[in-house]
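CORE FACILITY INTAKE
Project code: CF-77B
Contact: R.S. (postdoc)
Sample description: multi-component assembly, two entities in total
Requested service: structural model of the whole complex
Turnaround: standard
Below are the sequence entries exactly as provided by the requester. Do not edit them.
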Amino acid sequence: MSLQTLKRKFGQPTNSGAFGFSGSYADPIRNIDWILIAVVALQSIIGLFNVFSTTHLRLLDQEFDPYFYTQRQAGYIIAAAAAAAIVMALGHEWFRTQVGALYGGLMLLLVLVLVYGAVRGGARLSFNVPIVSFSLQPAEFVKPVILILIASYFSEASDTKIDWHHFVMSLYIVGAPVALILIQPDLGSATVIVAGVVGILLVAGARRRYLLMITGLSIATMGTVMVNGFIGTYQLRRLVSWLNQDSRDKALESVVLQVRFAKRAVSTGGFFGKGYLDGPLTNGKYIPVQFTDFPFSAIAEQFGMLGGGVVIALFAVMLWRVWRIAQMARDRFSFYMTCGIFTLMTFTIFQNIGMTLGLTPVSGLPLPFISYGGSHMLAMGIMVGLVQSVHMRRLE
Amino acid sequence: MAINNRSRRLTALGLAAVVLLSSLSVRMWFMQAVQAKDNELVVLAVRTRTIRLLPERGRIFDAKGRVVADNKRILTVTIDREVLKDPIDRLEMFQRLSGPLVMPIEMLFKRYEDKRFGPLEALPLKEDVSEETALFLAERIEDYPGIYVREEWKRNYPFGAIGSHVVGYIGAILPKTLAYYKSIGYDPNERVGGYGVEQSYEPILRGTPGYVRYEVNAQGKLLRLIERVEPIVGNDLHLSIDMGLQQFAEQALETQLVLRRRVEAGNVRLPDGTLDPLFPDAVYYKAPAGSVVVMNHDTGQVIAMASYPRFDNRWFTGGVSSNKFAQVFPQTDDPDLSVLVNRAISGRYNLGSSFKPFVAYAALNTGQLPGNAAYVFDDRGTYKLESIPSDRCQQGVKCVFRNAVCRATGSPCRFGNVTVEDALAVSSDAFFYKIGEQILTERGYKPILEEQVRLFGFGSPTNIDLPNEFAGTIPSKALKKRMADIGAISQESGKAYYVGDQVLFSIGQGLLSATPLQVAAAYGVLGNGGKLFTPHVVQQVLAPGTPDKTPGVADLTLSSVVERFDAQEPVSTVDMTGDRLAPIVRGMARVITGPGVNFDYYHKTTGELLFKGYPYDVLPIAGKTGTAQGFGNLPWNDSSAFGAFSLDPLQPYSAFAYLEKSGYGSQAAAPVVKCIFTALAQRYKLDGVIAADPLNIQSGIAAPPSYLRNPSCLAGGRSDSRD
């Protein structure tokens, strides 16, 4: 059913209803993708339970409240839902108009975080926001903003093909924040942003050589920073351990063991899993940072192939809904942005579950909606809001 | 915007996502369906610590309930291997432990590297530490992380050397049996029965180990108790061995051997009666070893089983150094010296004339003797083979076989007209030469004699419940070929089975060999009228928990039996109908009581003089002497054999003694058996069985000597007959 048909059928929207919403079928409020919302909500709830199962024993060990992280995650979910609602209400077009300011602000934060950021695991990724003791990770918010900016930029190009000028400009736009993120260093976020941009380039009709170029450039950049020791040997170790997952090298031990136990946790889950809160490796705290980086190992251990399958299936449904929204997007900007978000989410999911299964190297990427983390939940909420907004306003 | 282009690109994007998510699913399926089992095991091992709880080993009681093997609770210090992972921590920990454990650091490192201790279990550092040491470590658990003091059991043998060949000992699992024990769930560092009933009843005595399993986290900290399975105490064994008689048999055997060493063996004389210049000096009997078996022939239960040289089984639990151990139990190729051989079941012995009763039975059972018991043979001291033509005899084939020499005449004894009964009483070789030859030549050279003696269990293991039993050999074509193949005899002589072989076989020489236990069991068949039993040293397997009546003596009336061997069916029966048994028994009774035969002069039977003082009216017996020719047929190499069985159905005992290189049957072995039956007839006051002195690890001898308090039962007139 095309746009024209619908418009003919239901007539032009009028702005006469309460809160400025009309009774038209094209009214944004009537076009929320409830399936997407349901799926995301379900994933978040699964995530919440998973956060509890992976953290309560660790907290008890430290004589902390075992619900500490779970409560916080619940707060993040609510905050993310609120963020999504706000984005939906404001509409993605509004963000397009504000993207310059947002980009500038984030660049500033990225610079500041390098100086004032809290050091965690040898990297300066986040600010500790005092009062609510929330650790703000600017790189997470760069993700939606970059995608909006690039989508907006490319949608203004007249041709269906991206020309050289636009391509080079996009490299500058993306390159600046990515470089700052690499310095932090947060290789995972950097690659995910590039992946999202590549997704937009793909659908925007970039020449094949551009795609090759940006891929080559990314690899070269990564190679350079690694060889220079710019990011430190830690990231390099993750890559080497991925290539030698059975290595007995002492230097690689921490990463190798982390992945090995994650894999064992998944493997021993079997079909039905060990049962909630009965995962021996999860309970034994064998997998460091399991609640942020390896949540899937806890799900697969406790709920087995069934639980892991459900989570992957829910992601599939979520991605299908996003893909469908991209298909229905009313304009080029919406289309590009949605595709960018689709690519970014796909890449993040694959990368996170993949590293749990030993398919991809370890990186600090969270699993959308499931991993513990405020910034990531908020960023995901914003991205879902943007996609919803595209869906809601597709008939306007 | 070109819609087509857009949808094509979007499809590509979607497909990429489908591929990525599918690869995740496939990978997850592979890990959870295919690799799950292996990983499950690994994870189980990694995330748990198992502490084995060893069961208390079953006790062993003798026939009267005396505890011959029990357990002492000891404390063993172990350490969690996780604590020792880092080489620096390991060294530091060992340095600190060396003092309290009184153990050099090198020894601790040796332990650490010892492959016997499983990599996933706590490493035992020292066994049998004092309560004080255990307490010292327990109070300083913060300084000694990973240390655990566990209770274990140490085997204790209160009577030391008495019956140790039967009781056996426990020790480390030997490399060659490691795979077997692992396969039935043993831990490589467990101690298992290495000899005697400790070995043959190993799984029954051992019980079932229990364990405590804890879940641990990645730092090795105990999270929770997963399960605790209590060990199940092993079953007790009730032996048929009576330690009183066992001690007496060992004393009689050792006393007699020592006495025989003071006796000069006869000189070697040339056919003309002059001294052989090769052997001008008098030689004493070496009497290095021997064995006695006493059994109840109505049940197959072994009452005493002595083997000399003896050893004290506490050497194996004494924790002595390997050097010391090698000094006590030297590795030797000299069969005279080997200590760790139970000669009663492993001795491969020629039997000499003590085998004749079975040849007699073969003749009577197959009708080889015309007129059977009434058949009379004129024994003129020699027997010339009838089946070999005279011309071949003149070409050097041995055709003429002689009786043993009679001291009175200096030439082979001549017994005149003898029946089978007489032949047994005075041990006429010629009579049996004839049977041996003719049972072969007159019956188409079939192995009739072999088949007949096999009825009594010769040539096959008795299947007694002890390890390392020798099956014995019976001369036959197949045996000769096998022996030639392994190089024991020349290829030339291994070619065929000759009449000469058969003739030697008929008097218990040549390639015939048997263990003392086999002969005792075979004599038992004569004693019980034809029933062949599987001998047993264990009469009952008892459930754990039999209380002690007095310290060291179990109250067997309160025990519950798991399995019993004391009322078994015979494995086979030998036809003793008609006049098959009586002439044999009569002949063998005459060996004890006389009379002999009159020819030229009165020939006493081989035991007549010796058993003069024996209380025959209390416990009537029948027996047979045997002298087995040793190497070179030299007099000092004669081994002495004597077997006897009771004629009183209410006292169904059979006994057999064999004393290596100790002289004639009537000189060495017969007195020992006489002592045994004197004791069985309650005419000898046995020594009390008292707990042995603590093992003297300085001594360096396998077992202290043990002699008869009153050796008078060994005394008595000796026959001069080498039979």
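Facility notes:
- Chain A has a mean pLDDT of 86.
- The two ends of chain A are 15 Å apart (CA to CA).
Invoice: internal transfer
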